[in-house]
Design brief:
With 507 residues, the protein is mainly α. It is built from 19 helices and six strands.
Length: 507
């Protein structure tokens, strides 16, 4: 691992934790180097340490920043979007032509292991901080363990199980830089164990002050554990975790679907887990996600680097309201030629056709902007949803349907549909019909561009079929035994040539 120079740093991050600044310091060259003897002395040091661990929820891979993780890695391979084919490292992924040398995969691998190391620094040192209550220590340790488990969960989704397992911070020993790959079952067992245990120590959502929004709760842990179980087709276990979120009474659907994407209703009752962005530049750290500038059309000075697929557009047009109209979730998701289309850059009296070709479609979700959010529109201050309550309801419905409680499952799906006044599903649908509806209509319509679709296709075992049926560009390049995972980055094999690469990739 090329993590030899990762040390404690007080990173500036507006997560409701603290406004702290600092640099990466080297013990041999800087007398102010932070060591356990000079740091980890107070509650404030715990906050700073946790801030550094939370920082890697906000990826910093390259100039695309969160776009690269939450749009490219989580969506480019799916059938829900098309793409601009001139950015090599991104397009290789979308064209199923990626390699171990791609900067994109290396950036994600590097960032997640950095997040793991910062989490481990907290886990190793918090127990020794004096003058701090055991309750605060236990909660802080649970936060760090949750983050570590979440980072490993993302690594597992995209790189598989053959990962090195780090349970302690790196000290710079040779042994640490020549680790063994984990055997099957080790990483998945670790993720499961950690996400179960931390729930006992993490607070309820209202256990945090409003300015501390984004910090871990027991239901964030339950939600990630449920998605982990769903990915592994362990619906019985997932159902129990999802029930915790539903039964706690802390969450619900907000009334207006469009408000989820206007940047003004962050951390609403629908937000189970959101990555936080403020839109400012405090401490020199970029507290904006720039999704808007990557997704917006060129007429809005955007880069047009992701388009909604025509398959998704057609599905959303067909899923109409009880009045026979297009739904609010279509208008909030896709910008297209329609009298009701609204976009932030369209002036009063102007129509879609004044800016675009009549047949063009663009992303609207994550592109709406308000002056109160940031100084510049491309400094998007949207939080990025990892788990919404709507997702919880749909996953729970899927679990119920899986065990034969189909009528009850339909009730939960209809809760989601009622919010946008879409025609409710009939109660006499079959188990198979409900599953197909979730696969081909409900989850893609409700959760478009939110990072679920690719992983849904994998767990359902329908990647290849869906890509071809929905006319995904370069679908013929997709090989099921190869492209479900990203290749382990080439640089890892320079230090660990005996490691095994993911199937059908070179080292």
């Amino acid at each position: 691992m090329k993590l030899k120079n990762i040390f404690i740093a007080g990173l500036a991050l507006n997560l409701g934790l603290s406004a702290c600044t600092g640099t990466f310091l080297d013990e041999k060259t800087n007398p102010n180097y932070l060591t356990p003897s000079t740091f980890w002395k107070s509650e404030g040091d715990i906050v700073k340490g946790l801030t550094s661990a939370y920082a890697y929820l906000q990826p910093n891979m390259a100039w695309g920043m969160p776009f690269e993780r939450y749009i490219v890695i989580d969506n480019y391979r799916s059938d829900e979007l098309d793409f601009r084919a001139d950015v090599t490292s991104w397009m290789n992924l979308a064209m199923y032509n990626n390699s171990p040398n791609d900067a994109l995969g290396y950036g994600e691998w590097r960032d997640l292991f950095k997040g793991i190391n910062y989490s481990n620094q907290c886990i190793d040192n918090i127990p020794h901080v004096e003058g701090v209550s055991e309750e605060l220590k236990n909660c802080s340790l649970a936060e760090a363990r949750f983050l570590r488990a979440y980072y490993y969960y993302r690594l597992y989704l995209n790189f598989g199980e053959r990962l090195p397992l780090y349970e302690h911070e790196l000290k710079g020993t040779d042994e640490e830089f020549y680790p063994q790959q984990s055997q099957p079952g080790v990483i998945t067992g670790f993720i499961e164990k950690e996400l179960i245990e931390v729930q006992n120590f993490l607070p309820e959502p209202d256990g945090w002050k409003p300015e501390q929004a984004g910090r871990a709760t027991r239901y964030m842990a339950a939600g990630i554990l449920a998605k982990f179980y769903m990915f592994r087709n362990q619906q019985d276990k997932a159902e129990k975790e999802l029930a915790k979120i539903i039964d706690c009474g802390k969450y619900g659907l907000i009334d207006n679907y469009a408000h989820l994407w206007d940047g003004l209703h962050k951390n609403s009752k629908e937000a189970v887990f959101e990555v936080q962005y403020s839109g400012n530049m405090d401490g020199g750290r970029r507290e904006f996600n720039r999704l808007a500038v990557h997704l917006a059309s060129s007429d809005a000075e955007g880069y047009e680097e992701a388009y909604p697929s025509f398959w998704l557009f057609d599905v959303m047009k067909q899923d109409k309201t009880v009045d026979g109209d297009y739904s609010d979730r279509l208008y909030a998701t896709i910008l297209f030629d329609d009298p009701k289309t609204k976009a932030f850059y369209m002036k009063e009296g102007k129509q879609f056709s004044d800016y675009h070709s009549k047949d063009a479609i663009y992303w609207h979700k994550f592109v709406t902007w308000d002056e109160s959010l940031s100084q510049y529109w491309d400094w998007s201050a949207f939080n990025i949803p990892i788990i919404r309550y709507a997702d919880v309801l749909l996953l729970y419905a899927e679990c119920l349907n899986h065990r034969g409680a189909t009528s009850q499952a339909i009730d939960y799906i209809n809760q989601v549909r009622a919010r946008v006044n879409v025609t409710p599903l009939p109660k006499d649908m079959s188990k198979d019909a409900v599953l197909k509806h979730l696969q081909n209509v409900e989850r893609p319509c409700e959760l478009a561009l939110e990072g679920s679709r690719w992983y849904d296709l994998i767990r359902w075992g329908i990647v290849e079929r869906s890509l071809k049926e929905h006319k995904k560009p370069f679908a013929d390049n997709y090989v099921d035994s190869k492209h479900k995972l990203l290749p382990i980055p080439h640089d890892e094999f320079l230090l660990n040539p005996e490691w095994e690469q993911n199937p059908n990739f070179s080292k």
